[in-house]
């Protein structure tokens, strides 16, 4: 999966998979906050943006 994500022009750190049950609302909220913080730290995806300009 990592190679496919890189092939598509995305950094592997922009994709996360985690199993969370529908009854685990707090776990879901924590996961979303963590993912959001990680993606913000990565900044804009310049590689994909550059490809869309052509």
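Q: What amino acid sequence fits the structure above?
A:
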């Amino acid at each position: 999966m990592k190679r496919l994500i890189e092939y598509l022009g995305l950094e592997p750190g922009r994709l996360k998979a985690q199993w969370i049950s529908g009854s685990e609302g707090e776990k879901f909220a924590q996961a979303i906050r963590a993912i959001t913080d990680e993606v913000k730290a990565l900044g804009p995806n310049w590689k994909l943006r550059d490809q869309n300009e052509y």
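Q: And what stands out in the fold?
A: The chain has one domain: 2-52.
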